Amino acid sequence: MTSITDLLQKLNKFKQDLHEFSNDNYTILPDSKGMIDRQCPHCTTLFKINSEDYETKMQQDDIFCPNCKVSGTADDFFPEELKEKIKKVIQAAIIDNWNQETPMNDISIQSNAALEMVYVCTNCNIRYATTVSPNACPSCGTTN
Ligand SMILES: [Zn+2]
Ligand SMILES: [Zn+2]
């Protein structure tokens, strides 16, 4: 039987783990083509950007929608569905931590399935993919 002391100890450990987890302690894995997901806050078009190019070649807080060309920050272009997915994965990790004391590090979230067509911008060379025929490069806004 679990005593109150045991339960309090468990609760304290849980609080500690939760506290250590607090700062964005998860990884988003790119899809099979090395792409990460983005979504336009204006027209809701889903698109993808090569994760390497995203890290090394782009101004991440100056992203263009490849469909309607609206521009915004990385936060603006974070897909709603991905936010929901992250919430669910983290909730599950919290429950596992409580029930089985599974550590709350090493949480990874899978990107959506890869899109068939990959485009390369003729101006800035970043690789991207969209669910529609692109009107602009998500990095430099150039019309291809
Ligand atoms: Zn748009
Ligand atoms: Zn470009």
Automatic annotation (TrEMBL):
The protein's name: Uncharacterized protein
SUPFAM superfamilies named among the record's database cross-references: Rubredoxin-like (SSF57802)
